[in-house]
Predict the structure.
Amino acid sequence: VQLQAFGGGLVQAGGSLRLSCAASGRTSSIYGMGWFRQAPGKGREFVAAITWIGVLTYYADSVKGRFTISRDNAKNTVYLQMNSLKPEDTAVYYCAADAGTTYFSNTYYRADAYDYWGQGTLVTVSS
């Protein structure tokens, strides 16, 4: 599975961005997809996740109510709509695919549970 993330950029606080993550290859093996972020000098942080089949979504408390994860299976693409952005949302955002577990609902927040990663896209929120 190959993942390509794009859509990052510079936005003012309170603004919106939509990130996309296009999956290719053996997408039939995917159980779920997630978005993580890494701010300068910090570790990788879970943001949101979605099952590949069904409609289960998961969010970090810090983004709940502001970010929305969705997917388009016909396009093999997962989106992260980010609204009401804050300077603390500034980070490199990575998408990831879990193709190795059937217990995605228990592991979605763990970076080590994901098998494939995109290259990351930078989101900068100015105050």
DSSP finds one helix and eleven strands in the chain. The chain has a mean pLDDT of 95.
